[in-house]
Design a protein that fits this description.
The complex is a heterodimer of chains A (164) and B (574). With 164 residues, chain A is of the alpha+beta class. In chain A, 48% of the residues lie in helices and 11% in strands. In chain B, strand 3 and strand 4 form a beta hairpin. Chain B starts with a strand and ends in a 10-residue tail after the last helix. Classes of the chains: A alpha+beta (164), B alpha/beta (574).
Chain lengths: 164, 574
């Protein structure tokens, strides 16, 4: 398993190697390794998937099939601050679509994209289990509830200030 | 003996071993349950929902291909509920299927078409969003038409079974489709071109990249001389495309049929199978005597060669440098034969008829100098004959054209797993011990995935192994690398059972494929021909005397190396 230049830093490669070594003998370990790998790299580029395929002795197409089946896995890089807007039923009836529009406007990209400076990315998700606070979004691991288009603006401005 | 389970299927009592599926039990009761994603020895996942039946003890309809039988179970395969469910499943598949059935190569031989007709489906009952995906034309051997795919995943299972894994399901829901990782084209992927996906496909989503039009054009060109030659296994399978029983040897009729397409020559590729053996047996003895890398692997299968170059480049020094019989024939025709007959090689159009799709890729390899102009599969030859209105079964038996007509039985059995090994052993043993007369090596025959034997000839011990199917080749490589096994000579054929079961062979209906042992029946035709041949050993064929005396001098001579040997290159892929 060689370190490949396209898959990030030597530290990331070492971390991935360790995860594969640790889990490879456990049946059904692919999902776990992919989750860990996404934690290490933020997304799952071809080099990372090749390393996993080689490490487990399975084909790249099998790894890619699992990655594309689950929406939690991403083939594209994510921002430093990952915005995830819930479009589940409860949030949706409480106006999540309007909130998402406001987020897109505030950050200047569409849902599914990442800003050029790599600071923000926007995705939608289906229910984070906080329906009582609908509509809800997550920024990284932080949950924000009872959102309105105006409230979103204030929250995101804080993040922007932090980065300035 | 396994415990038997008694059950009734459509009121017919049947007793089957414990652990059998409803589908297997139904076969014993002579009840056919329709299937699409199921393919014997390849795929059994219960995903297409065609084989749904009613069974006591089950809540809803169950998939017969995966549902195990139990004592006292009563199964109904043909109720209105089953028929309605199957019909709707078919209509949903048809809703997004590219329905160019009039012009599809699988028309008349398509499992989806057959079932849709049998169930009286309305092909437009549901109007699904069609995909309009462009054809994957990247590879010179296979074409993928995603808009005809029904996502049965039989091709994926076949590819995985080959330890190649070039394709898999991508995405989920309505957008799910079969493709290579990161949407790579087949040519960029780890595909080796064996074509097992094509013969696994129940519809027309996968087919060979046809070169039939180029052959027709050459036949119509008054300035071209056209020479056909047919691979050993084609005579054992071509008849299937004309409704003859599996395992019918149609050699004489095949020659007569090709002759009616009006080429200038119809030659026998078994001749260069003999030539391959002369070169390969000499190379083996030379490697043993001069301490070159051992063991030696055969190199006549281009999918195996591509597999080594891409997945196990460390094994390249172990590959025999012999070209395949196809490329030896191309080389022989465009050098020796052209020189002898005063023909400019540019005016000779060489057509090989092969059981294989990887051979289409092989003739494009730069090392081969375009010596074979077109390689067409057994299926393509059948299509050409049908276009020309030729009725194979009614034709007289005719002979190949000289000087490349006579072969040994060893050349003929090249088409079956173990055949190359047996033919090589016949010649190598005789080279080592002039008094050695044995020509039958039954240990290397048969369709077992891996066969092993050890022979002692004139004080030499030769340990051999034979594997067909690339997953079995992978096993052998691992065993060699770990030191668990030691061999001197190893035959590999990429397709399970060898060329008789190649990716270019006729696609038979599932009803036959899921019940008959195609590999053995087809191979038997070749072994019978071998037994009836007065020349069993390649070195006994008078054509070998001719080409060595007139041109090459001796096996492994300088001239032989120029025309009959090749080289390989690393092309590591994951």
């Amino acid at each position: 398993m060689e370190h490949c230049a396209a898959c990030g830093t030597p530290e990331q490669a070492a971390a991935l190697k360790a995860v594969i070594e640790q889990s490879r003998s456990t049946p059904g370990c692919l999902m776990h390794i992919l989750q860990e790998a996404q934690g290490i790299y933020g997304f799952l580029p071809i080099g990372v998937q090749k390393t996993i395929a080689e490490g487990l002795g399975i084909s790249l197409s099998e790894v890619y099939g699992v990655v594309t089946f689950y929406s939690q896995f991403s083939l594209k890089p994510k921002g430093k601050h990952r915005i995830s807007m819930c479009l589940g039923t409860a949030c949706y009836v409480k106006g999540a679509d309007k909130v998402l529009e406001a987020i897109e406007k505030e950050v200047g990209i569409k849902c599914g994209e990442c800003t050029e400076d790599g600071l923000f990315s926007i995705d939608s998700c289906r229910c984070v289990g906080a329906c009582g606070l609908a509509p809800v979004m997550m920024v990284g691991e932080e949950v924000y509830g009872r959102l309105t288009p105006e409230k979103v603006k204030t929250i995101l401005e804080e993040y922007k200030k932090e980065e300035a | 003996m396994a415990n038997m389970v008694n059950l009734k299927i459509n009121n017919i009592p049947v007793s089957v071993p414990e652990g059998s599926t409803i589908l297997e039990a139904a076969r014993l009761a002579h009840i056919e349950i329709p299937t699409l994603c199921y393919l014997k020895d390849v795929s059994c996942v219960g995903s297409c929902r065609m084989c749904l039946v009613e069974a006591t003890g089950a809540r809803g309809l169950v998939a017969a291909c995966v549902y195990p039988v139990s004592e006292g179970m009563e199964v109904k395969t043909n109720t209105e509920k089953c028929r309605k469910s199957r019909k709707m499943t078919l209509e949903l598949m048809l809703s997004k299927h590219k329905k160019e059935c009039l012009a599809c190569e699988r028309a008349g031989n398509c499992e989806l078409q057959r079932l849709s007709t049998e169930y009286g489906c309305d092909p437009n009952y549901f109007e699904g969003e069609t995909l309009d995906t462009p054809l994957d034309l990247s590879a010179p051997y296979v074409v993928r038409d995603r808009d005809k795919c029904i996502n049965c995943n039989r091709c994926v299972a076949a590819c995985k079974k080959q330890a190649v894994g070039a394709i898999g399901p991508i995405g989920r829901g309505y957008a799910v489709h079969v493709g290579s990782a990161f949407e790579m084209s087949l040519m960029e992927s780890v595909c080796v071109g064996c074509g097992q996906c094509i013969v696994a496909c129940p519809v027309g989503a996968l087919k060979e990249r046809t070169t039939v039009d180029e052959v027709w054009a050459a036949l119509a060109d008054p300035n071209k001389k056209v020479a056909f030659f047919t691979a050993p296994s084609v005579r054992a399978t071509l008849g299937e495309a004309f409704d003859l029983p599996v395992g019918t040897n149609v050699e004489g009729k095949m020659v007569a049929a090709i002759r009616r397409l009006a080429p200038d020559y119809v030659f026998n590729m078994d001749v260069t199978a003999d030539l391959t053996i002369m070169e390969e047996a000499s190379e083996l003895l030379n490697r043993i005597q001069t301490g070159k890398p051992m063991p030696m692997f055969t190199s006549c299968c281009p999918a195996w060669v591509k597999f080594v170059e891409q997945k196990h480049p460390e094994m390249i020094p172990h590959l025999s440098t012999c070209k395949s019989p196809q490329e030896m024939f191309g080389g022989l025709l465009k050098t020796y034969w052209c020189e002898k007959n005063g023909v400019d090689p540019k005016d000779l159009f060489v057509v090989s008829v092969i059981p294989c799709t990887a051979k289409k890729y092989e003739c494009h390899r730069p090392e081969m100098n375009g010596e074979v102009d077109a390689a067409i599969t057994t299926r393509e030859l059948a299509r050409m004959l049908k276009t020309a209105g030729i009725k194979l079964a009614e034709l007289p038996e005719e002979e190949f054209d000289n000087p490349f007509a006579t072969c040994s039985g060893g050349g003929t059995i090249f088409g079956a797993t173990g055949g190359v090994m047996e033919a090589a052993l016949r010649v190598a043993a005789k080279m080592l011990d002039g008094k050695f007369e044995v020509v039958d090596f039954p240990e290397v025959r048969g369709t077992s995935p891996i066969k092993e034997a050890t022979y002692n000839v004139a004080g030499n011990t030769v340990r051999v192994a034979v594997a067909s199917g690339l997953a079995n080749a992978e096993t052998i490589i691992k065993q060699l690398e770990s030191g668990e096994k030691q061999y001197d000579f190893i035959e590999i054929m990429a397709c399970p059972g060898g060329c008789v079961n190649g990716g270019g062979q006729p696609t038979l209906p599932d009803s036959i494929r899921n019940t008959a042992d195609l590999k053995s029946l087809r191979a038997q035709a070749l072994y019978t021909s071998d037994k009836d041949n007065k020349f069993r050993r390649s070195s006994d064929s008078p054509v070998m005397d001719l080409v060595y005396n007139e041109y090459f001098g001796a096996p492994n001579s300088h001239k032989a190396h120029e025309v009959l040997h090749t080289s390989y290159r690393e092309d590591k892929r994951i």
